[in-house]
Design goal:
The complex is a heterodimer. Chain A is mostly helical. Chain A is 80% helix and 0% strand. Chain B is an all-alpha fold. The chains are: A mainly alpha, B mainly alpha.
Chain lengths: 224, 219
């Protein structure tokens, strides 16, 4: 690839750096999004105050508006309102965590709802505490139920990370843009960038289906 | 303090951006439906090559970010001698990219048709073309109005990404308003609420339409 006129070995280094930034933004925002999403979902499920309803309303708007606009809101809007400085990477991680959390909250609620209510009643009549019920009954089953949705969401959010290039984060897409504008070789640059995302998405898919098998194992032991 | 009144005098610019978004959305919805329909028919056809092509198409376009596709189209098309502006580049890219999601939705609709209905149609002497145009496609499309609706709502939200290739749609227009009024927070909050309200209204309409079209299917 760098045998061509415009390309140098440094483009490869740039590609690797972009890959690192994309992966960092993706992994951090997924973990934060998972934590906040589960928290919001549980607050709503246990109907803790009016907070749950407000958080779900905000989630609805985060799910139903373009992520790009949310990025602009956080990167340009919040610093102007609160008179603070936000780096592009910070703004990107805040936005994507919020967006992921909104989707996770809905997944959490629907997977808890999918559990047979009789199990919960039985557990309560055995005087199990709410924490025990959450840990021993709700958690393993809803996790297995939610896994395919979580993997689909992860693959989708990986693609969404490409948008952070628009606010100036030097991620994989931004690297593609920089190299493309210098070399004018769109037919080499963009297929390489696209293929990188494709391979990453496939890797998430494979890891996800392994996890799905792992979490579904409890179903196999029931008939012994 | 947040102050939305600053936006009032810029409403015409906002409306102008919305019209571009609406225009490109309608054209791309039609385009992606046509692309998706053709590929969905390939996906369920008996020719192995067609099936393989359709499978690869869906796999590629569902796993590559739209921003990468749009940059590829925007910088790549002039290289091969196709000179079209940002509007038509966006239209083309959206039709092809969203076509992959339409394909999967329609395929699910086709695969879920009761096999008995097809057997009956065949025994009445329906040919291949008549079987598809009179039986399979009408059932597949009416039963997948709701999932198709969410695909198309996603398309409308995706048009915001076209601001990256200098198309003057809603997000671009708002960006200009934000930089002239120095009130980015208010402008983008308004925009998030606007897109959200648009989405809720459209999904409510689609849900009603879906119910109406499928009113005889409920037992």
């Amino acid at each position: 690839m760098y045998g061509d006129d415009g390309f140098t070995i440094f483009d490869l280094q740039l590609w690797a750096e972009g890959l690192g930034i994309s992966a960092w933004v993706f992994i951090t925002s997924s973990i934060l999004g998972l934590l906040f999403g589960v928290l919001i979902g549980l607050i709503r499920y246990y109907r803790i105050s009016v907070l749950g309803k407000i958080l779900m309303l905000i989630s609805e708007f985060l799910k139903n508006s373009p992520v790009l606009v949310q990025l602009f809101l956080v990167y340009f809007g919040i610093p102007a309102l609160l008179m603070i400085d936000l780096s592009p990477v910070e703004a990107a991680i805040i936005t994507l965590s919020g967006n992921t959390a909104a989707f996770i909250a809905v997944i959490v609620i629907s997977s808890i709802d999918a559990i047979d209510k009789k199990q919960l009643e039985a557990a309560r009549s055995f005087a199990m505490s709410e924490w025990q019920i959450l840990k021993l009954i709700i958690y393993p089953q809803s996790l297995a139920f939610a896994m395919p949705m979580l993997v689909g969401l992860a693959i989708n959010q990986l693609q969404v990370t490409s948008l952070v290039s628009v606010i100036g984060v030097v991620d994989l897409t931004r690297v593609g843009d920089i190299v493309n504008l210098r070399t004018f070789e769109p037919f080499i640059v963009w297929p390489v960038i696209g293929a990188t995302y494709f391979v990453l998405a496939k890797m998430i898919g494979i890891a996800g289906s392994k996890l799905e098998n792992r979490f579904n194992r409890y179903k196999r032991v029931t008939n012994i | 303090m947040p102050d939305l009144s600053a936006m009032l005098e810029h409403l015409p610019a906002f409306w102008g951006g919305f019209l571009v978004t609406a225009e490109i959305s309608v054209l791309s919805i039609i385009g992606s439906f046509i692309v998706g329909l053709i590929v969905a028919l390939m996906r369920v056809s008996e020719a192995k090559a067609a099936r393989l092509f359709a499978l690869c198409y869906v796999d590629v376009f569902r796993n590559i970010p739209f921003l990468v596709l749009i940059f590829f189209a925007y910088y790549g098309l002039p290289e091969v001698g196709v000179y079209i502006d940002a509007f038509w580049t966006g239209c083309l890219a959206l039709s092809i990219a969203v076509g992959a999601y339409v394909t999967e939705t329609l395929r699910a609709g086709i695969v879920n048709i009761d096999k008995g209905i097809i057997e009956v149609a065949k025994s009445f002497g329906f040919g291949r073309i008549k079987l598809y145009t009179k039986i399979i496609l009408p059932i597949a499309i009416t039963s997948s109005i709701r999932p198709l609706g969410s695909v198309f709502i996603n398309l409308i939200l995706t048009t915001s990404i076209l601001s990256a290739i200098t198309l003057g749609e809603l997000t671009s227009a708002s960006k200009i308003i934000a930089s002239t009024t120095f009130r980015p927070f208010e402008v983008y909050v308004f925009l998030v609420i606007f897109y959200g309200a648009l989405t809720f209204a459209l999904s409510a309409l689609i849900a009603t339409w879906h119910k109406h079209l499928n009113r005889y299917n409920e037992v």
